[in-house]
Amino acid sequence: MGIVRRTSIRFLTILYIGIVLGYINTVLIFPNILTEEEFGLTRIIFSAAALIAQITQLGTGNILVRFHPHLKEDTKNTTLTLGLFLSFIGVVLSGLVLFFFKDWIIDSYAENAGLFTYYYYLLFPATISLIAYNLFDGYLRVLLKNSFSAFLNSILLRLVWLGIVLLYAFDFFDTDAFINYYVGGQVAVSCVGLICVLMQGNLTIGFDTSPERLQMLKRMVSFGVVTIVSGISLLLIHRIDVLLVGKYLGLAEVAVFAIAMYMSDVILAPAQSIARTSAVLVADAFKSNNMDMVKTLYKKTALNQVLLGGLVFLLIAVNYDSLLSFLPPTYSDSYDVFFLFGLTKVINTGLGVNGAILINSNYYKLDTILSVSLLVISVVLKILFIPVYGLIGAAASTAFAIIAFNIAKYLILRIKMNLSPFSKNYFIICSILVVAFVITFYMPNTNSVWLNIPITSSVFIILTVPGIYFMQLSEDFNALIDNGIDFLKKWV
Fold this sequence. Notes:
It is a single chain. The protein is mainly alpha-helical. The chain has one domain. 83% of the residues lie in helices and 0% in strands. The chain has 20 helices and no strands. α8 (146-169) packs antiparallel against α9. It is globular, with a radius of gyration of 22 Å.
């Protein structure tokens, strides 16, 4: 896990700087400057664009990760060539989707989200920019260079958006220009990323046409067709909430929903930093048939992700009302939505790299079957629940789908491959986190937000971190703490 730890720490550092910027943007600045409809519009445009990009990019990311171990010795840089080719197809397909489904999409949102239909034309540049970002992000990922793409998306993009919103607040341009510049910020950052990928050094573009490579191409196509369905299904489960909330409840409710989603997305930061590198190592392990490495990665990623994800989730949960006290009152009633999303994400990440293992195994088709089944169930539940129960209905249906999906993946890996992510230390960590949360949650509050947050956070950390550290429940967590202590000693 050494390489995972090193790359994860760099990635996580950038990600948490981005989270601070994201909190400033999403919680402190945007809701206090933008109207609820304008804020909701910025969310729904990129949710729709992300969905279209995922559908039309033909599983590029999964293909690159799965087959790069077989292609990385190619002098023709087949990995980059394949990524560029699939991305070009994605751009063409995106244009066709947006053209032929324009009337249907506009009619669906005309009643409750008319502002979205007015800016429909921005979906195409937004989608292209996400396709471009997904390309260079996937390529850098297989090269184990995760930090740069994280910097662009988590820091640079958020700084650009912050600047645009502040300029809008001081009347440098009108609403129409603001929305266009907002989408243009994503386009500009994606262009920077593509330029940097092309400057990596190996600019050779070509594809080996030997019989061996052509046979591998057939495998790639087969794998891509199967995994794209899985990828689309998972993205729909995550993204369709925003689209259906916009359709049934309007852009103002999208804005409130976006706050709860953003606060829960923070929980994913540790898992993202670990999983990005681990997924590549899982692919390498399957190539060399090193199942011991697969077992080790499965257990360690599950342990570290439930630990770090659980810490972040519960730390936010005990401070949620205080963190949202800076927002207009309309945003405050979102705790239940956040808690459902947060708990779901802890369970999702706490089962380790089960998705990467399943996709790289001979049972990858089962992943697609599960994804499609759960997508159907999830969408049906959302259509039934959102009009009746509102935002909590959207969150509950998503929680059910994702938890069921992960339980099914766990059972497949357990039965088919005799793999399990659990250990004694895993359950000890979960017990410590739950006890600390209950104690901290029911502590009396002061009358000051500025006192509540540090006091509550300190108590929760004291109840969890020392015990986990001195009981040596996670080797990687202890190494992280030790590195932090050594760093502080150099400055004291």
